[in-house]
Design a protein that fits this description.
141 residues; Jelly Rolls; elongated; 3 helices
């Protein structure tokens, strides 16, 4: 079985945001998959996706702080037409990545105990972000 859908997320402020429940809700077909894979791809160049700790909100704060130190807005970028947060957002997206693959078993995403899917919003006003969710799998093992 193959299934693909587009998920438009609500607008999020700059930072790291848990989206695991958004993805699950967009895929009612997940319950029918005994074994498979979910591929999640973001259709933007200034936001990214990651899997990280979902228990302590301090992790989200620290990730944002660390990324802002790595890709600083005051660096002398050449690409500045879209604002001071644009080029650092591209750098962050290039470092973190735009796609995730998650194993699926018995209708569930196989995430670790403390893992969640994150939208990494790197712009001050990034807008609604679009994800492509591609689920492949079998209803039999």
């Amino acid at each position: 079985m193959w299934y693909q859908t587009e998920l438009t997320l609500p607008e999020f402020r700059r930072g790291f945001h848990l989206i695991t429940d958004h993805v699950r809700q967009a895929l009612p077909q997940l319950k029918d998959v005994e074994i498979g894979l979910l591929h999640v791809h973001i259709m933007h160049t200034s936001a990214s996706l990651t899997i990280n700790e979902n228990a302590d909100p301090d992790v989200q704060t620290d990730l944002e702080m660390a990324m802002n130190k790595i890709a600083r807005e005051d660096f002398p970028y050449v690409h500045t037409m879209e604002g001071s947060d644009d080029m650092p957002a591209h750098v962050k997206a290039a470092l973190i990545g735009t796609s995730l693959t998650v194993p699926v078993r018995e209708g569930k995403l196989l995430l670790g105990t403390w893992q969640g899917l994150y939208l990494c919003e790197h712009r001050n006003h990034g807008g609604r972000r679009r994800l492509i969710l591609t689920l492949q799998g079998s209803s039999e093992i």
